[in-house]
Amino acid sequence: MFNEKLKELRCSINFTQVDLARELNVTKQCVSNWENNNIQPSIDMLVKIAKYFNVSTDYLLGLDSKKVIDVSMLNDMQISHIRQIVKDISTLMNQ
Fold first, then answer.
1. Residue 3 needs a FRET pair 20 to 30 A away by CA distance; which of 15, 36, 43, 93 works?
2. For the chain, which residues make up each domain, given as ranges?
3. In this structure, which long-range contacts are made by residues 15-23, counting pairs with CB atoms below 8 Å and at least 24 apart in sequence?
4. Degrees, nearest 5: CA angle 61-66-72
5. Residue 31 class from Cβ within 10 Å (0-12 exposed, 13-18 middle, 19+ buried)?
6. pLDDT of 42-66, one tens digit each?
7. SS (HEC) of 21-59
């Protein structure tokens, strides 16, 4: 599950394995091994990856399907607007 989540997140930001490796200060081969499910990252690296992509470690491990958006830099009014947009999109998708 981790390998699929990592690749999905990496591709969602249009990063190559080389790009992600550079950001995480590991080799391209390391990222490739993670994505091919050959090895698993250390706990410290798992936390670093979660922080980089702003997701939980549970999400990366497939224990939680929730995706989170960091809104800490927004004010209450802006957060309210974001919540309404998410609600509207959800309603449209369920029709």
1. 93
2. 2-60
3. 23/52
4. 110
5. buried
6. 999 999 999 999 899 999 999 987 7
7. HHHHCCCHHHHHHHHCCCCCCCHHHHHHHHHHHCCCHHH
pTM above 0.70, yes or no: yes
**CA–CA gap between residue 66 and residue 75 (Å, rounded):** 22
70-94 in b/e form (b: 16+ CB < 10 A) is eeeeeeeeeeeeeeeeeeeeeeeee
Crossing angle of helices 43-53 and 2-12, rounded to 10°? 30
Place of tokens 């800490």: 72
Residue 27 has pLDDT above 80, yes or no: yes
Q: Tokens for 79?
A: 């957060």
